[in-house]
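Hmm, how's this folded?
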Amino acid sequence: MIKSELINKLAEANPHLFHRDVERIVGTIFEEITAAMSRGDRVELRGFGAFSVKSRPSRVGRNPRTGEAVDVEEKHVPYFKAGKDLREQLNDKYGA
């Protein structure tokens, strides 16, 4: 599902809201999650999962074409851990 599909589903489920308001709500939620993560905070949505930032230290990598050693800088990457309810629903659906 992409962002526009999410907005359309929410607008259909809430006919009392204007489409532009639903769009603004979804945008605000995503902006707040992004802002919290950029501050280094963890964002937890109960029953769905938690977003956090993981730090990958600098290291020496290899250029795959030449095999030459290359310095790779430290990186901060987003990380998502699915919540228990989400995992259980997926496992029930796919029979795992």
Q: What stands out?
A: The chain is about 45% helix and 30% strand.
